[in-house]
Amino acid sequence: MQIHTTIAGLRAALRDAGSGQRVALVPTMGNLHDGHIALMRQAREHGDSVVATIFVNRLQFRPGEDFEKYPRTFEADRQRLAEAGVDHLFAPDEAEMYPQPQGYHIDPPAEQAGILDGEFRPGHFRGMATVVMKLFQIAQPQVALFGKKDYQQLMIIRNMVRDLNLPIEIVGGETVRATDGLALSSRNGYLTEAERKEAPRLFELLTKVVAEIRAGNHDFPQLERNTVSQLKANNWLPDYVAVRKKFDLQFPSAHESGLVVLAAARLGSTRLIDNLEV
Ligand code: PAF
């Protein structure tokens, strides 16, 4: 695996690999877990050259969020990526990505970026979309892969690519879970032992909502309220539990199909998100 810390270095290596090569890009912020590695393997099916990126993007963190303490585990990540057969790792520092304060941004529309996570993390999706657009310009991939665990992020990236006519196929990777159901996330490492035992409840409750909907219960507001109450009763602080349309995450009508149930809730000081397609 070649490691590049500069844009020029990555571009030169991809140019040397040949213009007929199909580049598959997997952007990450590092602290890699099995979910990321599954995406790398999936990327291999889509591209001749697999490019992973590691960059903790300050722009998508709000003041007071965990930018400073976000785990930076470069050596372990490098080893895992090499074992997974990744061809190129692009790991720039901040000066390489933002040599001067970023002046131009990708500003996703409020109906996509101001709802759900965007309501609780204003500006997050603007920062995320801006760095993803920069990574697309830097690596010029034919295909890019993102996990479905960040469902709203995936939807926003798909819409950005469509609206801006980027010649990039966007592929979603299934959420990888621990044996007890907890969705793998770099932030799970913040959980105390007791919180880690409690954490799978989020998945269990979402599973129940999906089962209810499949059994014909279409009273979505009541299902959402029930789930919020059960989380609160177990000392979670829920931001939202929402039944939405998969395609655009807007409110569904009562008998709509193609749904996803999404939730975000704080357990102690850790904010967890998860979702399940119905
Ligand atoms: O999902 C992530 O890890 C980040 O939001 C991404 C896509 C790498 C952009 O910084």
3D architecture notes:
The protein is of the alpha/beta class and about 280 residues long. The protein folds into two domains: about 1-175, Rossmann fold, CATH 3.40.50.620; about 185-275, Pantoate--beta-alanine Ligase, Chain: A,domain 2. Helices cover about 40% and strands about 20% of the residues. It contains eleven helices and nine strands. It has helices at about 5-15, 35-45, 75-85, 95, 110-115, 115-120, 125-140, 150-165, 195-200, 200-215, 220-235, and strands at about 1-5, 25-30, 50-55, 90, 145, 170-175, 235-245, 260-265, 270-275. The strands form two sheets. A six-stranded parallel β-sheet has the order 1-4-3-2-5-6, sandwiched between helices. A three-stranded antiparallel β-sheet has the order 7-8-9. It is globular. The mean pLDDT is about 95. Pantoate (PAF) binds near residues 28, 128, 131, 132 and 150. Pantoate binds next to strand 2 and helix 7.
Q: N-to-C terminal Cα separation, in Å?
A: 39 Å
Q: How many helical stretches?
A: 11
Main pleated-sheet profile: 6 strands, parallel
The low-confidence parts are: none
Q: How many β-strand runs? A: 9
Q: What is the CATH superfamily classification of the largest domain?
A: HUPs
Proportion in helices: 25-40%
- Inertia-based shape: globular
How large a portion of the residues is in β-strands, by DSSP E? 15-25%
Which cofactor or ligand species appear? pantoate
Q: Kindly state the mean pLDDT as a whole number?
A: 97
Which CATH-level-2 architecture of the largest domain? 3-Layer(aba) Sandwich
At the first level of CATH, the class of the largest domain is Alpha Beta
